[in-house]
């Protein structure tokens, strides 16, 4: 009888099994300007939770969450460049896949935490960059092309790189 009860309870115990992988990362935006190199940084936390739902027939999946703020670069011309961090949980995963790290979330999380130097993001994973015509007017927001900062900020402005590192 006890074995039968255990067999009935086993699916309930397994139904909501999950494993969470998390890390804190420092996100740095480096910009070449006519006055020299400037940077802006933000620290954020990424959590990826592997979940399964036995009763719904789900074989599993991953849910990610991200807590942090945009990186802000104050430029010498008095303007600001904002790197919006929406989707930041996937940047490192995608870039590590591109670099040949194989496996699922556990292997990628382990590889990221083991890095001893910042990861330079591939341009295809750059975040959305924006600025404001008037920083006090949210309606004046403008998208900035990461390949052509000079078009928005003037001659001599160029995105040097965006890096991520575990903190």
Write the layout of secondary structure elements.
Layout: H1 2-15, E1 18-33, E2 36-53, E3 58-67, E4 71-74, E5 80-84, H2 88-98, H3 105-114, E6 119-120, E7 128-132, E8 141-144, H4 150-153, E9 158-166
Antiparallel strand pairs: 1-2, 1-9, 2-3, 4-5, 5-7, 6-9, 7-8
Helix pairs in contact: 2-3
Keywords summarizing the entry:
167 residues; alpha+beta
Structure, explained:
Helix 2 crosses helix 3. Strand 1 and strand 2 (36-53) form a beta hairpin. A 5-stranded antiparallel sheet has the order 3-2-1-9-6. It has a 4-stranded antiparallel sheet with strand order 4-5-7-8, with no helix packed on it. It has helices at 2-15, 88-98, 105-114, 150-153; strands spanning 18-33, 36-53, 58-67, 71-74, 80-84, 119-120, 128-132, 141-144, 158-166. Residues 2-15 have low confidence and may be disordered. With 167 residues, the chain is of the alpha+beta class.
Distance between the termini: 52 Å
Please list the strands of the largest sheet in the order they lie side by side.
Answer: 3-2-1-9-6
Tell me the number of helical segments per DSSP (H or I, 4 or more residues long): 4
The tally of structural domains comes to: 1
Shape: elongated
What integer value in Å does the Rg equal?
21 Å
Structure class: alpha+beta
Low-confidence stretches: 2-15
């Amino acid at each position: 009888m006890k074995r039968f009860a255990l067999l009935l309870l086993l699916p309930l115990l397994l139904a909501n099994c999950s494993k969470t992988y998390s890390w804190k990362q420092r996100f740095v935006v480096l910009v070449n300007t006519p006055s020299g190199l400037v940077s802006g940084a933000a620290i954020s936390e990424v959590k990826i939770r592997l979940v399964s739902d036995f009763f719904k027939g789900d074989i599993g999946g991953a849910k990610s969450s991200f807590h942090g703020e945009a990186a802000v670069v104050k430029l010498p011309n008095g303007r600001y460049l904002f790197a919006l961090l929406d989707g930041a949980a996937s940047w490192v995963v995608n870039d590590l896949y591109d670099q040949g790290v194989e496996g699922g979330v556990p292997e990628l999380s382990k590889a990221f935490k083991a890095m001893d130097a910042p990861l330079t993001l591939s341009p295809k994973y750059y975040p959305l960059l924006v600025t404001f015509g008037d920083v006090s007017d949210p309606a004046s927001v403008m998208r900035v092309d990461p390949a052509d900062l000079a078009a928005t900020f003037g001659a001599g402005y160029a995105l040097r790189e965006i890096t991520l590192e575990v903190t």
